[in-house]
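User: Show me an example of a complex going from sequences to structure tokens.

Assistant: Sure. Here are the input components:
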Amino acid sequence: MITKRIIPCLDVRDGRVVKGVNFEGLSDVSSPVELARYYSEHGADELVFYDITASAEGRRLFTDILTEVASKIFIPLTVGGGINTLEDFDRVLKCGADKVSVNSGAIRNPALITEAAKRYGDQCVVISADVKRVDGVFRVFAKGGRENTGMEAISWIKQCVERGAGEVVLNSIDTDGVKKGFDLEMLDAVCRVVNVPVIASGGAGKIEDFITLFHTLPGVDAGLAASIFHFGEVKISDLKAAMKKAGIPARV
Amino acid sequence: MVAIIDYGVGNLFSLKSSLAAIGAEAAVTADPEAIRAADRVILPGVGAFGDAAAKLRATGLDKVVSQVAAAGKPVMGICLGMQLLLEKSFEYGEHQGLGLIAGEIRPIADVIPAGLKIPHIGWNALSFGKTKHPLFKYLKDGDCVYFVHSYYGARCEEAVIATAEYGAPLTAAVARGNVMGCQFHPEKSGNAGLAILRAFCEMEGNVC
């Protein structure tokens, strides 16, 4: 039986891992390579690296770090942040990434998904969407959650999957950083319209939040979180043991 | 020395790094002489069967792999590389494989219940059946490895050495003598994957 995946997310700026609350007030946490190794040894099923660097120099630093991580850690690696062209796909895949996550780049140019899926395969292309309720409607936000695109989120995600995205990361801006649990309503809406893996992001505060997620929504394949793992509030090994105990298939 | 065959399909960075991590000397190469001179050979691959088989033939490396296999050296296919070891595939048409192991490649949609997601992607547990192949000597039944595939090895019952349950038991690994293949990615399967690569690197020629 396929196991439910637990995925720590590492936001990287200038070679260091940072994490924001509701995308504001970023603070430095630790070294990407050290954290990646720690997570891998404690049972993380996959790692996501988001490059939140703006400068060209920072970008070079990011690919250097990615190369170092990929040469030492042998679990699937997803890379996102600043992916706007096929050349960006190429750049991170050459450094050892297995999947590439697109967000604002796909909003600007949806054909990027189609072209990347054709060249690298559907399994390689992840659509990451930052979604927030605006007047009761799920809207897609761009630029790290700062800009309302006005697009309705569920149809956007459906379109991305039809274009060839092989996986969806749904990040609820409404629950991100609040630590009161994942956005089950939003996730359910997405699970109903796509038949590719859905990764829940935003809102995990404790182990029970993951148990509730997988029990309530069998269509969700993975749970992603950052700060609760980085600050040691939830240990992945404890989480995996709790999942197993709750009858959720987990790799321990 | 392990020769990782480079025929222009897929990213070999992780495979090379994982072999380095277990202390195995490995070279990514398309040179027939280097491949023939190696102690053991890995045939990697991602993408579509037809394209990969065509590239392998165009470079003449299909014959080199068959020669190495006939010489009794350990040969391992990974993912699409495993599929290429079988006789044929029905992925977008019908394509000939190397035929080193009896069997064919068919869509997993043929055997799994409707509603399950395709590809079969993620960590799944291995079952070894009654006897455990030497490739898995460091693993126990139920250890998880990482899969990404939409097609599977069918009609290869005699060669199956591991399965994974995904609505149906899917072929996870095959072997015939010194030729073996893993549908999953050992180079992405954490410590379990490294242990499989280590076991492969410790094999003598003409294993059974």
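The lines above are the inputs; the final block is the predicted structure for all two components together. DSSP finds ten helices and twelve strands in chain A.
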